[in-house]
Write a structure and sequence with these properties.
The chain is α+β, with helices and mostly antiparallel strands and 137 residues long. The chain contains 4 helices and 6 strands. It has one domain (2-126). It has helices at residues 2-15, 89-100, 104-110, 123-126, and strands spanning 23-25, 31-32, 44-45, 52-54, 77-78, 82-83. This is DUF1501 domain-containing protein.
Length: 137
């Protein structure tokens, strides 16, 4: 269902001529364990994954670190398949908010944990400044 919804949305944005001014960003407040619990479901975990799309997005990149293995003894795997995150959410929201035109002086208010993050992605990392004729702001 999400594929057809995104396909329709993207087609409408392109037809309207504003695709270069649009960013689609996924987000979640928690990840899931890689193994099932006793009810054949999964439990809350730490790490999660996100994607962004848009006309000005520099595609084909992976930010953060994928686990070397998904085996229980993996380097960032804890009990029951809980993956330890390697990249804070603030890291990628920083670049998106810069692209939206949020001033550097306001980013700490919008992302209060931003300065506790080891690596912040920037607008330049994530977006092609020459990719579109229109900007988000």
């Amino acid at each position: 269902e999400i594929n057809s919804a995104l396909k329709g949305f993207i087609a409408a944005m392109k037809a309207s001529g504003i695709w270069d001014s649009v960013v689609i960003a996924s987000s979640s407040d928690f990840g899931r364990t890689l193994t099932s619990n006793s009810n054949a479901g999964s439990d809350h975990s730490w790490a999660s994954h996100h994607f962004i799309a848009g006309g000005s997005v520099k595609g084909g990149q992976v930010f953060g670190h994928y686990p070397q293995t998904l085996e229980p003894d993996g380097n960032i795997i804890l009990g029951r398949g809980r993956v330890v995150p390697t990249t804070a959410d603030e890291a990628y929201w920083n670049g998106i908010l810069e692209w939206f035109g949020v001033k550097d002086s306001e980013l700490d208010h919008v992302l209060p944990n931003r300065k506790r993050t080891a690596r912040l992605f920037t607008e330049e990392d994530m977006f092609d400044r020459n990719g579109g004729t229109e900007r988000a702001n």
